[in-house]
Design goal:
68 residues; mainly alpha; 49% helix
């Protein structure tokens, strides 16, 4: 007994399939693009960090303890 083969039907309504995306599927990439664009186009002024000197001393002490 031969196996039945399924043929593809060409329905006229299959050509007009509409895909609906949730709002966040469009909004999130747009927001990410805008944020990256602002980072690139923003002023390129970098300021030195003014931290507590105790933090620097602590990090130096940790490096001293970990290196032989």
């Amino acid at each position: 007994m031969p196996a039945r083969t399924h043929t593809r039907s060409t329905r006229p309504d299959a050509a007009g399939v509409e895909v609906r995306l949730p709002w966040w599927a469009v909004a999130l990439p747009a927001v990410a693009f805008g944020a990256l664009l602002l980072l690139i186009a923003g002023p390129g002024q970098a300021h030195a960090a003014t931290g507590d000197p105790a933090v620097g001393r602590l990090l130096e002490r940790i490096v001293e303890l970990l290196t032989p």
